[in-house]
Design a protein that fits this description.
By secondary structure, the chain is an alpha+beta fold. Helices cover 38% and strands 21% of the residues.
Length: 208
């Protein structure tokens, strides 16, 4: 069966010439093979649109591969602040690169400005979103966010904490439904000063 995607969808997934575009038709063909491989009939009524929908889903879930995270790390002009900034409970959803299974959770980002340089708070959420919308490992996702913020904004310090539930662990394998994975990346002043690190963790967790 021929794969048909709307022109709007194709336009959304077109990218700059120096990046690899999403091949929706190729993904859809692969999904049909998976359906056949598990013994299903991809031509039956309930599955006829499934390959296209899955292809569009993967394009959306990997959109961060076609975005430049550095564009979110631009200091606000004219605004100054020297105290700790924390944005917590940023919802994230990513794909484990080992099983292509989702992991979902929350990201907490803290930084201490240097020379008053700050970001719009939504930029921190967008930075987390850009890196999470890729094939990822949670450990790498955490350090990707921290390193990009540290190198781009040049603050005194950066700390990123992510807590997530991995469906590759909760739905298959050991099947531990309540298990969560917590990772952190600590740079600059947060790494060098235990009291500052403890203050940030207390604000993130709500525990003194």
């Amino acid at each position: 069966m021929a794969t048909e995607f709307s022109e709007d969808k194709k336009a959304q997934d077109s990218v700059r010439s120096n990046q690899t575009p999403v091949d929706l038709e190729m993904i859809a063909r692969g999904v049909r093979l998976i359906l056949e491989g598990i013994g299903e009939d991809p031509t039956r009524s309930g599955l006829q649109g499934t390959p296209n929908r899955v292809a569009e889903m993967y394009a959306e879930l990997t959109a961060g591969m076609r975005e430049d995270p550095q564009r979110h790390v631009v200091p606000l002009p004219g605004d100054k602040h020297d105290e700790m900034v924390i944005v917590k409970d940023i919802s994230i959803a990513s794909l484990c690169e080992h099983h292509l299974a989702p992991f979902v959770g929350k990201c907490h980002i803290a930084y201490i400005p240097k020379d008053g340089r700050i970001l719009g708070i939504s930029k921190l959420a967008r930075l987390a979103e850009t890196f999470s919308r890729r094939l990822q490992l949670q450990e790498r996702l955490t350090t990707d966010i921290a390193n990009t913020l540290y190198e781009g904004l040049k603050p005194v310090g950066v700390m990123v904490v992510i807590e997530a539930e991995h469906t590759c662990m909760t739905l298959r394998g050991v099947r531990k439904a309540s298990a969560k994975t917590i990772t952190s990346a600590v740079l600059g002043g947060f790494r060098n000063d235990p009291r500052t690190r403890a203050e940030a963790m207390a604000l993130i967790t709500g525990k003194e």
